[in-house]
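quick one: FE2/S2 (inorganic) cluster bound model?
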Amino acid sequence: MKDIIIEKNPKKAKAKFDDLFLAREQIIKSASKDAKLHDSIKNLTNTLHPKNIEVEVTKIVEETKNVKSFYLKRKEGETLPNFEAGSYITLEIKINDRIYKRPYSISSNPKNTQEYRITIKKVPDGLVSTHVYDNCKVGDVFTISGPLGNFHYNKIRDEKDVIFLCGGTGITPILPMIYELLENQKVNSILLYYGNQKKEDILWETNLEELQTKYSNFKVKFLLTEEEIENYIYGNITEEILKKENLNGKSFFVCGPLEMYKSLNEIFKKLDIPNKYIRHEIYKEELENLLRIEHKLTIKKENQTYTISCYENETLLTSMENNHINPKAHCTVGECGFCRSKLLSGEIKTEISSLRKKDIEMKYIHPCVTYPLSDVSIELP
Ligand code: FES
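yep, here:
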């Protein structure tokens, strides 16, 4: 066996680590694209985690104004892959001859693998959500991938008493978690604070109330910001509201609009709730003051080079999608790492929180959350 030599000089240790990192990148790059897996393992892997699945829309339900649920079944009639409550799938959709990929949380009960339900809100700037909301019909066929994501309850990491805080369609990944935790008796108690503008905007109010009647350890409190109705809390979730609860030893799961994350982060700080008790669904920071200034984006992909236009107010991923170049992508918010690419030159603005320190040093970026500030050149994996 080889002796393990520990490099004590920090500079030399870093240099060695950099060499290792580069060597690893070279090995990955030169590896055969056809992994040599035993056939039975390959078949099992493909069945449990197929890369892409064709699904058919079997039912559409108008849940509230501007929110619809789409029920998806596998085209060949087989079951869909199991998913952990809180996961999302990536929907691939063709709009004007261009392919876009967008993540949507699965809002159905994870014990049902015959079908997935995704719930989509039509939003003014949402190209894909608006297209699906307006045009999708029963019988349409889509390609999906996943399920993926890290917004899950983990019985080793998380506490036995859970508080869910969500707003609007932020309930979509949370409802499956509530089903799973209650039905499998994984926790002692669940408290859900669910905020909306009006009563008519609340998703699955009756289902949530039925769950509350059925399970004594589940409580739901509805908040409304634009209507004062008896038994509904008026306004947003505040420090005062949370202070009324016993917050010690509880895990918090948050999902909702960007302003909600910002305000809850402040509240958690004031209440001295350590980060280890807080889980967030992934979200994209809105980068402000970006203008529609045009630059050139040069993309190296395998042995090809493409040059397209890109804009300061558009992510590199969107520019590529708009120009029929479709790199690997799932989450589109900088979390999954599938779009990770090397920045060869140019100035960019990006959310780097999801990148590892080494990636930042080695100039790797996630095009899904990167905006160009000059002509930019990147290499796709
Ligand atoms: S698509 Fe997930 S990190 Fe970019």
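The first strand starts at residue 53 and ends at 64.
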